Every structure is written in C-alpha cells, then in structure tokens.
Amino acid sequence: MCGRYCLVLRPAQVRAYLEEYNMPVYEAPPDDGDHAPRQSYNFAPGYHGMVYRADVPDYGARPRQHEHHEGKIEREPMVDTRGSEAQEEVRYKLQSMKWGLIPFWTKRNPDYGSMLKTINCRDDSLIENRGMWNTMKQNKRCIVVAQGFYEWLKKGKEKVPHYIKRKDGKLMCMAGLWDCVQYEGSEDKNYTYAVITTDSNKQLKFLHDRMPVIFNNGSEEILTWLDPNRHTWTKELQGLLKPFNGELEIYPVSKEVGKVGNNSPTFIVPITSSENKSNIANFFAKGAAKADSKTGTSPKGVKLDAVKKEEMKEDMPTTQIKQEPGDDRKTIYHSGIEDSVPLPIPEQNYGNESQQGVKRESNDVLEDGLPKRVARSSSTPTKSPSQKPTRKTRSAKSNNTASPSKSTKGSGSQKITNFFSK
Question: Tens digit of pLDDT for each residue in 59-87?
C-alpha cells in the first residue's frame, strides 16, 4: 500500500479546500492543458498527481553544498529572490508530479518496472541516515493529495478490491517525498514523488498490514513535516510517521478497478449500495417491487413470467466504464512490492512469447491476473508408438526426482539504488 488511489478534483478545487483548512497555496497548476495533473477514479503509478509542498529550490530545503578539490565542503546560503517579506514566512504550492520517485542522480529514464519499486517508501526505511531516501527525507518532504485509496483483500485465489476513505469525507493528506531529476542530454526537469507507508491501524488490519501515513488537514503535524527549516532528520520527524488515528470507511467495490486505464464513478460506490447500478441484488429488488405492485403478492411469492423477464432485460443496469486514452496496458499482480494491487506489466515484457523457464513471465498471466498453468516438460525420452508400454516399477528408496539445485542470487535481491545508477 498504496498502489492505487482516487483523485477527481481539479487543482482549483483542491486549492480552495486546502485554504479553507489554513493550508495556504501560493501557486497551483492549471486545471487544463499539458501541465495539468490527472483526475481519475483509478489513479495508477505513472500518472501525474497533485503534491503540496514548501516552495523551495529543486535541490530541496537546505543550503547548497560545494565540494572543493581539497575535499572541503562549503555551504552556500539559500538565496530568496521573492522579496524581504518572504524571508519571514514560508510559501507553499501545489505542484503536478509523476507518481514513482526517481532520484536526482539518475542518468537515464528508468523502465517502468524499476519505477514501480519507488511508488512507496516504508517508514522504517527512514530510521537510519543512509539509503536512497536519505536526501529526500531531510529536505524534500511533501503531502500527496487524495480522496481515498484502494486495497485488495485476498480470499483464496480471489482478490476483492476495497475503497478506503475518511469517514468525515475530508481529503486525505498523505505523507510523501519528492525529487527533481534531469537526465543526461536533456534540459527538462522531471518531478516525481512517493507515498510513505506505515503499519495499518486497527480498522485496516483485516485488509492489509500497511497503510499510507495520513495527517489531519491543517494540523501542526503538516506544518512540522513541511517546515523547510528542518533540513536534518530527527526523531520528531520520524515520530510523525504513525498509523491514522481517525475513523475510516472501508467497503468492497467493483472489480473493474483492477484494470489500469479503466475509469468510472462507480469505482468508489459500495458494491452493495442501492446507488450502485451494477449491483444485481438492487435489480432483483426493483423487479420484485414491480411485481408486488401489479399482483398484490409478497416479493417472496413472485414468479417471473415471460413479460416480467422482458421487463428485466429492458431495465438491466449497465455500468459505463471509460477507458483512458493511450492507457491500454495489461495488469499483473507484481511481486517485490508491499501491495497486492494489480499494476501494469512493464513494457519490455509486452509480446515476448519466446521466454521459457521455471520463472513465470508476464505472458504466463491471464487478463484477470491469474497465472496460467504451465505444462512441465518430462526429462525422460518419449517412447515410439511401436513399443509396447511396460509397467514401470517404483523404487522404495527414491521418488525419481532430481535433487534441487542451489539457487543463485538473482536480480530480486539487488539493492534498490542499482536500478537508478545505470
């Protein structure tokens, strides 16, 4: 968690909401155009979302450092060109950033599979002052704005999506980290972010053991978290990363949300709600009510004749699922992340049907996210049709299986920083 969330508000709406809770917005992205963030009921990694942060330079809220040839480090004082009044107060801004943090030292645009590894940042990975998050946690902290998020409940082989939102209906201000990178040979600046996760609270434990860090709107915790004068990681900042102590509303929703690119308002409506037109139970209740009004019998005694079946066909609800243009990626349940949400298959695996081996590849997965059965090849030679089959005796000492080979250290055990140093 968090691997999918909901945000359908425009920047102007988010700005008005934040300012109502004493969270000033000095600058915000446009509602429309190329630089506008995305609005979606099914917000996936790689989309451009809205981030609230202090208005600091791209290198973060700290004095810039210069290293001389003697090895000495000098700090350049932060220069504020916005006037003398800005020296005393901190300005905050809403900014459009891409979900999936790419650290500033990255030389080339990483593949989608590598980016998926940095959509979340565990709170316990920030305790020690080392690792790839060390720079961001000290001077590049932010708030990720959302209306709610999704989590998938495992029921055997089935995964049921659930939508989680604040019970009071307020926006979710999730703790995050951001960064800015310029690739070699490019002048474009790329802003990206990650959502910080912590242990789930009691309400969410049944669904998942992790949840995003959620601050109360306009709270002192947000002011402390975004304070640009705190450019050293402290126990106070670490202590802010804890489970949400407010009330949440959690309920199952349509499985159509599992496909990246699908977008519909029904995704945040409870599957059992009378407002959900896709709920077949609501339809039968409606059909029974019609029959009751015509015959005067109780709904339990209603029998559907040919005429009523025709009415059922005409009244059968349909859910309009909008497919986002240019986003027809297939999804798969990725391993290596802390969430059970289905995520897009990395592009380098598309159409690769020549891959074989024991390890399951992306082409071994059906559209619904369940793995295909892979036929095992036998090590014994096939017998010709002319030979008569003879009964093979079974050894009491051996089950005729090869001893397991020693596993080699694969790419799955590499450090996360290796993906961004190429």
Answer: 987 665 543 333 343 444 444 434 444 44
**Helix/strand/coil (H/E/C) assignment for every residue in the chain:** CCCCEEECCCHHHHHHHHHHCCCCCCECCCCCCCCCCCCEEEECCCCEEEEEEECCCCCCCCCEEEECCCCCEEEECCCCCCCHHHHCCCCEEEEEEEECCCCCCCCCCCCHHHHHCCCEEEHHHHCCCCCCCHHHHHHCEEEEEECEEEEEEEECCEEEEEEEEECCCCCEEEEEEEEEECCCCCCCCEEEEEEEEEECCCCCCCCCCEEECEECCCCHHHHHHHCCCCCCCCHHHHHCCCCCCCCEEEEECCHHHHCCCEECHHHHCCCCCCCCCCCHHHHHHHHHHHHHHHHCCCHHHCCCCHHHHHHHHHHCCCCCCEECCCCCCCEECCCCCCCCCCEECCHHHCCCCCCCCCCCCHHHECCCCCECCCCCCCCCCCCCCCCCCCCCCCCCCCCCCCCCCCCCCCHHHCCHHHHHCC
Q: Is 307 a residue whose pLDDT tops 80?
A: no
- Token pair in block for residue 172: 């979710």
Can you give the pTM of this predicted structure? 0.68
**Pick the residue with more confidence: 313 or 51?**
51
Neighbouring C-alpha atoms within 13 Å toward the C-beta of 408: 3
Sign of the CA dihedral running 413, 416, 418, 419 = positive
So what's the pLDDT on residue 329?
58
Spatial CB neighbours of 42, under 8 Å, sequence gap ≥ 6: 4, 6, 257, 260, 261, 262, 263, 264, 267
